[in-house]
Amino acid sequence: MTTAPVDLGDVTLSYTSAGDPSGPLAVLLHGFPDTNHTFRYLAPYLAGLGYHVVAPAMRGYAPSTVSATDDYSMAAVAHDVNQLHERLGGTSEAVLIGHDWGAAASYPTLSAAPERWRKAVTMSVPPMPLMMQAFTTYDQLRLSWYMFFFQSPLAEIVVSLNDLDFIDRLWADWSPGYERAEDVAHVRAALADPANLTAALSYYRAMFKPIPDRPELEYIKATISHTPATPLLYLHGENDGCIAPSVAEGTLQHVAAGSEMAIIEGAGHFLHLEQPDEVHHLIGEFFGR
User: Fold this and answer.
1) Percent of the chain, pLDDT > 70?
2) Mean pLDDT of the chain
3) Using CA of residue 134, residue 136, residue 140, residue 145, what is the dihedral sign?
4) Phi and psi of 120, rounded to 5°?
5) Mean pLDDT across the stretch 200-217?
6) Where do the structural domains in the chain lie, given as residue ranges?
7) CA nearest 97: which of 67, 119, 77, 128?
8) Tell me, what DSSP letter sits at residue 159?
9) Does 190 score more than 80 pLDDT?
10) Residues 221, 211: contact at Cβ < 8 Å?
């Protein structure tokens, strides 16, 4: 794995890469509270299949920079991904994989520029219509309490206490029984600076705000409610303590023809770390068809 920066204007993203640079591009997007270290198993697997694997630290997560415009909307993140595709010489054979916020960002990325992506995988966050429906239910609101707490200015204070113990507790709740120390250590490093922590929380604050009027985001805004035309594989852990597996029911009604879905037994929210062999097998099969 090698690391390099790419200046996208509003942010400079730091990304790790693996595999043959002449191979088709595979972009891997992490979520919260996580880092691109989360793909330490998946990246070499995809490199072995011939992909040029690129896993950015998402905007605001060190060593990537915070946004110069303080924009953490999904439109901004989706634009980052499509810019990354262009800067790294991606073609129509590129594939996109997103987990958690990375999944949420994948849907508008695909809708806005389907010509860039051959196939995609999203994990742990189903399409937005299902998430919006879930937020009308007590069961999912109970699990999603932290999203609403993050709207408070108290969030930075509480989350930062005791060396980000809050983050460690979220991992414990979301993937019960998973040995998380290595992953949480990387999150602590990425969010150690208060500016980076505020950036990570700002993804949630942007949920309740209009997309900023930035000309470069107009193509995302115009298609953000569209069903992605790119076939995708959706994966969800059966023991997910963040997004209830029941929320993902009906996923195939909100994605393109040729899409597939699987529930991963014995896995929680971080399924690609908990059951990597099963996840790799499903992704490899899907990309190979």
Assistant:
1) 100
2) 97
3) positive
4) -145, 160
5) 96
6) 2-288
7) 119
8) H
9) yes
10) yes
